[in-house]
Design the sequence.
């Protein structure tokens, strides 16, 4: 069943909201949860109905789990029967490396996003799904921002003191990096003979990589990063995924060719602005790089936690400056991930790295530790309770 709105658009237009959040993905939903927990009225808006199917972001690493624990949601993944992750199998050519993971879980986005929204509602946030923000419909004044919202049979204008843009890769304020890979993926029916529980399979080949993990309900999540030209030459994502899997000498999952594939905008993106007058941009909308084993969700959740304390304060231009400083801190992990992505673009590099790690797997520990290290210990810099 769809997650019901907590009020109508007509009701929303009759109030002035201290905080309005566009986008109810992990970043927007957790920000709403934290703002509501502080006793501030917040309206969470999304164009989609929930639960919704999404292929990307089905792995939560150690940082993501630490953020959930920090806000009192440490039991969320357990209640949703998330699959604990303990290993990455990296394939390149005919080489395979087994890399141990210190923590992490696999969980469908249908379950994760819905649970985070429900937690936000329980904390006191209002939720309005199936509602579009009209392009160029955000206007400003000294004390308020007005956002035009539209549903199928009604449109109206909502006023807010603080606007949070958590609309993800589709944000009007972000643009793709030249030459960036695009995302593509699908979810396949349950196949217990493929990809054991607790493993992430990462297959690198010419034109991109194919990541596969088993979800809590047994389905296979297939998430890929492909070069646009390689995907065109292969006549679609299914054919390119199949070719990469065959290059790695692994079985092609049943149903891959006939599955319904979803695509994304370029995965490496930069934001035109991450803060403005009564505006904070967070999550994927604030900039994104190609992830591997759950980094994307970790960045989204961390940014939500970091913005909450700022959004609850009376507006001052200094808050925009402080958010830019915090985003620079959050950007550090993305730069490291971007370097790994650059190496894996080249088959010679990916094969050499996989061969070395297959013989000396402990060399991967610093990389894994960096990607899974929680920076919440630096709370004075990122989180102000």
Sequence:
């Amino acid at each position: 069943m769809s997650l019901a709105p907590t009020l109508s658009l007509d009701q929303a237009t009759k109030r002035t909201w201290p905080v309005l959040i566009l986008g109810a993905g992990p970043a927007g939903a957790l920000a709403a949860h934290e703002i509501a927990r502080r006793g501030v009225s917040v309206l969470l808006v999304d164009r989609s109905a929930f639960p919704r199917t999404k292929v990307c972001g089905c792995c939560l690493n150690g940082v993501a789990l630490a953020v959930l624990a920090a806000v009192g949601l440490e039991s969320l993944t357990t209640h949703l029967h998330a699959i604990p992750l303990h290993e990455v199998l990296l394939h390149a050519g005919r080489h395979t490396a087994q890399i141990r993971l210190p923590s992490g879980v696999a969980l469908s986005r249908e379950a994760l996003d819905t649970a985070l929204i429900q937690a936000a509602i329980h904390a006191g946030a209002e939720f309005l799904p199936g509602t579009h923000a009209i392009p160029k419909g955000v206007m400003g004044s000294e004390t308020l921002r007005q956002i035009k919202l539209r549903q199928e049979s009604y449109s109206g204008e909502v006023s807010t003191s603080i606007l949070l843009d958590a609309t993800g890769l589709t944000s009007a304020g972000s643009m793709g990096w030249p030459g960036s890979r695009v995302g593509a993926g699908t979810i396949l029916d349950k196949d217990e003979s493929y990809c054991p529980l607790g493993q992430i399979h990462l297959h690198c080949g010419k034109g991109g990589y194919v990541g596969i993990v088993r979800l809590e309900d047994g389905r296979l999540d297939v998430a890929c990063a492909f070069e646009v030209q390689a995907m065109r030459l292969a006549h679609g994502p299914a054919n390119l995924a199949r070719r990469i899997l065959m290059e790695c000498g692994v079985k092609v999952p049943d149903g891959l060719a006939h599955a319904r594939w979803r695509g994304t905008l370029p995965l490496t993106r930069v934001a035109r602005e991450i803060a403005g007058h009564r505006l904070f941009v967070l999550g994927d909308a604030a900039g994104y790089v190609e992830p591997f084993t759950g980094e994307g969700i970790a960045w989204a959740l961390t940014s939500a936690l970091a913005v909450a304390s700022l959004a609850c304060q009376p507006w001052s231009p200094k808050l925009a400056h402080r958010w830019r400083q915090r985003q620079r801190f959050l950007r550090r992990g993305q730069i490291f991930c971007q370097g790994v992505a650059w190496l894996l673009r080249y088959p010679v590099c990916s094969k050499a790295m996989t061969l070395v790690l297959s013989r000396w797997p402990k060399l991967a520990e610093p990389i894994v530790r960096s990607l899974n290290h929680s920076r919440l210990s630096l709370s004075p810099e990122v989180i102000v309770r």
